[in-house]
Write a structure and sequence with these properties.
Blueprint: E1 16-17, E2 19-25, H1 30-40, E3 48-54, E4 59-65, H2 68-71, H3 75-80, E5 85-91, E6 106-110, E7 113-123, H4 126-135, H5 146-155, H6 161-169, E8 174-182, E9 186-190, E10 199-203, E11 206-210, H7 214-217, E12 222-226, E13 232-236, E14 239-243, E15 253-254, H8 256-261, E16 267-268, E17 271-272, H9 273-287, E18 294-297, H10 303-313, E19 321-323, H11 336-339, E20 347-349, H12 351-354, E21 358-363, H13 370-381, E22 386-391, E23 404-405, H14 413-416, H15 419-426, E24 430-433, H16 436-442, E25 455-456, H17 458-461, H18 469-485
Parallel strand pairs: 15-25, 18-21, 21-22, 22-24
Antiparallel strand pairs: 1-23, 2-5, 2-11, 3-4, 3-5, 6-7, 7-8, 8-9, 9-13, 10-11, 10-12, 13-14, 16-17, 19-20
Helix pairs in contact: 4-5, 5-6, 9-10, 9-16
This protein binds iron/sulfur cluster.
Iron/sulfur cluster binds next to helix 17.
Length: 486
């Protein structure tokens, strides 16, 4: 394989969490706090961000392509977002492409007044619902699945806003953690499986909704509790109400949030993410030991697991790969001539640490395998005697339909090759993955309950916790077309 043809940006070989949400109700600095909260949630989406505020009479909107820090730090922008109520969203497009009109929060004027919605997740029956709504006359402004929710609320026959939201959510399938803002209420809701996180916080008596606790820490807010799976939180001037409008089911939180998506300084569903990643690394060391001189993380996401691996294995931990943190996603891709020089924008080997050593490389996951190939080669070029790769999750064999940007199954290396084949592809001396039961053990479970799994782990097992209605429709249409063609 010609390494110069591999992706230039190594983050292109990661699954990408798509969205972070943040809302604050009744604080004089609502928009500035929301900008800070979104900045802390930047890892959940770097493509675009938006904030909607309400000043008691009018809604105000700012939506921009790019990073929160590049667009929401200027005083005029924050000043334009007047009011004590604000809702924000940062996104990477999993559904609907990168069009500016898809930047959230999405907003609509209903008969009862303005309504903004910020969505983390992905609907698995959005196309089916959109089809139905369009046949009844709805006109869609965006290609985002979130707009389906707005249309369902708008066309609901219920009287009260909260009942209309419940009516709408009762028709959708998939994953959603929503934060919504109306003239009088902020509403937070998690789907019955609780696939994506959502928390409730408080700053000086102002309730806050956020995707992760790190968004509370940045503004000195207090963590109150997780919004429970299937729970709807309704915040108004009279207080906070908790509703349980859906039939309870066993929660299936996304296990990959612990492996990679959530920020390591966040606490998710009562579990500290950093601690979980160290435990995952320790479990990996027990399951797949390696004779080596040094444990080296693929930074940054492999670092906590590598610390756990090194401690459990009794092998020194060291930073044998250094990451350049100043490479944004907007860095101009160089010409082929420059690329062929072997320019490494993001990672470089720390030769003094690696030279002559047997190295265990720890990464959180392998998606296409192209980055692993490049990293193994880089470590060898720096003089490593042996390179053993250990992955802090099971092989990623299936796509995610719940709000994570995943390549098609056919592009996932683990769906196409055996572990031995993958080791050969990435040119490692050995390769091993954490088992699915090992991952559950690291998270404090006895193992995966095969009859009723405790988490969503579909990208490792193919066991999706909901119907995939849109995919079934697409497959049916494809089968019909094929049948007509033959
Ligand atoms: Fe998370 Fe994977 Fe389930 Fe998607 S399929 S929600 S990434 S565990």
């Amino acid at each position: 394989m010609d390494l110069t043809t591999l992706p230039f940006d190594t983050d292109d070989d990661k699954l990408r969490e798509e969205c972070g949400v943040f809302g604050v109700f009744g604080h004089p600095d609502a928009a500035a706090l929301t900008a800070l909260g979104l900045h802390a949630l930047q890892h959940r989406g770097q493509e675009a961000a938006g904030i909607v505020s309400f000043d008691g009479a009018d809604f105000h909107h700012e939506r921009h392509v790019g990073l929160v820090g590049d667009n929401f730090t200027k005083r005029p922008v924050i000043d334009r977002l007047a009011g004590n109520y604000a809702l924000g969203h940062t996104r990477y497009a999993t559904h609907g492409g990168s069009l500016e009109r898809n930047i959230q929060p999405l907003f609509a004027e209903f008969s009862g007044g303005g309504f903004a919605v910020a969505h983390n997740g992905n609907l698995t029956n959005a196309l089916a619902l959109q089809d139905r709504l369009q046949r009844r006359g709805s006109i869609f402004q965006s290609t985002s699945d979130t707009e389906v929710i707005l249309h369902l609320i708008a066309t609901s026959r219920m009287e009260r806003l909260v009942d209309r939201v419940i009516d709408a959510l009762g028709q959708i399938e998939g994953a959603y953690s929503l934060a919504c803002l109306s003239r009088k209420k902020m509403i937070g809701c998690r789907d019955p499986l609780g696939v994506r996180p959502l928390i409730l916080g408080d700053l000086d008596g102002a309730p806050i909704l956020a995707s992760e606790t790190c968004a509370l820490d940045i503004i000195g807010a207090r963590f109150v509790r997780d919004v429970e799976p299937g729970e709807m939180i309704v915040v108004s001037e009279t207080g906070i109400e908790s509703l349980r409008p859906f039939a309870p089911v066993k929660p299936r939180f996304c296990i990959f949030e612990y492996v990679y998506f959530a920020r390591p300084d966040s606490t998710v569903n009562g579990r500290g993410v950093y601690d979980m990643r160290k435990r995952i690394g320790a479990e990996l060391a027990r399951e797949a030991p390696a004779s080596a001189d040094v444990v080296v993380p693929v930074p940054d996401s492999g670092t906590p697991a590598a610390i756990g691996f090194a401690e459990a294995a009794g092998i020194p931990f060291d930073l044998g790969i250094i990451r350049n943190h100043y490479v944004g996603r907007t860095f101009i891709e160089p010409s082929d001539a420059i690329r062929n020089m072997g320019v490494r924008l993001k990672h470089n080997a720390n030769r003094k640490i690696i030279e002559g050593k047997r190295v265990v490389l720890i990464d959180d996951s392998i998606v296409r395998g192209t980055t692993s190939l490049k990293i193994v080669q880089m470590v060898r070029d720096a003089g490593a005697a042996e390179v053993h790769m250990r992955i802090a999750s099971p092989p990623t064999t299936d796509s995610c339909f719940y709000g994570v940007d995943t390549p098609e199954k056919s592009k996932l290396i683990a769906a196409r090759m055996s572990i031995a084949g993958m080791a050969e592809f990435i040119k490692a001396d050995s390769l091993a993955f954490l088992s699915i039961d090992g991952l559950y053990r690291a998270l404090g479970e006895a193992g995966r309950d095969g009859a009723a799994p405790q988490f969503c782990d579909a990208c490792f097992t193919g066991a999706y916790p909901t119907r995939l209605t849109d995919r079934e429709r697409r497959d049916t249409v494809a089968a019909l077309r094929f049948a007509q063609a033959v």
